[in-house]
Amino acid sequence: MGRKRSIDRNALLDAAEAVVRRDGAARVTLNAVAAEAGVSKSTVLYNCKNKEALLLALIERRIAAEENTANEIRAALDAAPDSGIRTRIALARREMSEDDRAVILSLSATIAQNNELAAPIRAHYARVLDEILQTSTTSDDAFIAFLAIEGLHCLERFEILQLDPDRRRRTLDDITRLARRGLTRSESEGGARCAV
Questions:
Q1: Number of Cβ within a 10 Å radius of residue 175
Q2: Of 6, 16, 69, 116, whose CB count within 10 A is highest?
Q3: What is the model's pLDDT at position 1?
Q4: Residue 155, H or E segment
Q5: What are the DNA-binding region positions (predicted)?
């Protein structure tokens, strides 16, 4: 039986992620992705012109997935004060799977060597930070809380620091308290109290 002539883009990206997990992003080849997906190399080329385009599509899909989850959290917050940082804290409380960690770690090494692959990540973080600052009662506290969350993510993603679940929860509770400081300050100025 021959290889399929076409493939859904998400199925192709699933195959690419499987190759990244197995071989690392630096070793991804269009042939390896084609073999994993059960399609011809020309089918992969039709969907993604080259390896860089394939990796870029993977990065953009991961960003879109995170933004979709953030949108769901934000909708549940119903435009509450500090919704930007509260959304980031809620995202940080979610456990990252080992598969996700492996893909992100491998992609990070490749992104560090290719400025074009970093462009959508920079744009994503610019949007996130803008939302945090625009929705914050006190932007300084929210900004510091954001940096703390991202620092924790970095240490975890690169497997430099792995907190036990209780310590991780307490750390995120501390970051939440930091973000709440702005709410507490606004209360004394007549603002409404809102839980993070």
A1: 23
A2: 16
A3: 46
A4: helix 139-157
A5: 29-48
Tokens of 129: 């930070």
State the DSSP code for 4: B
Task: Using the predicted structure, report yes or no on whether residue 49 has a pLDDT greater than 60.
Answer: yes
The H-assigned helical ranges of the chain are 9-23, 30-37, 41-47, 51-77, 83-92, 98-112, 115-135, 139-157, 165-188
Largest CA distance in the chain: 72
Assess whether pLDDT exceeds 50 at residue 82: yes
pLDDT in tens, 107-124: 998 998 899 999 999 999
Closest Cα partner for 86 from 137, 152, 161, 151? 137
Superfamily of domain 1-49: Homeodomain-like (1.10.10.60)
Rg of the chain (C-alpha set): 20
| 115-135 helix and 139-157 helix, angle to the nearest 10 degrees | 140
Mean pLDDT of all residues in the chain? 89
Q: What is the DSSP letter of 193?
A: P
DSSP three-state, residue 39: strand
Q: Which long-range contacts (CB under 8 A, 24 or more apart) does 150-157 make?
A: 152/92, 153/92, 156/96, 156/101, 157/96, 157/101, 157/104, 157/105, 157/108
Q: Side chain identity at 16, as an amino acid letter?
A: A
The single-letter DSSP state of residue 80 is: -
Contacts of 181 (CB under 8 A, 6+ apart): 138, 141
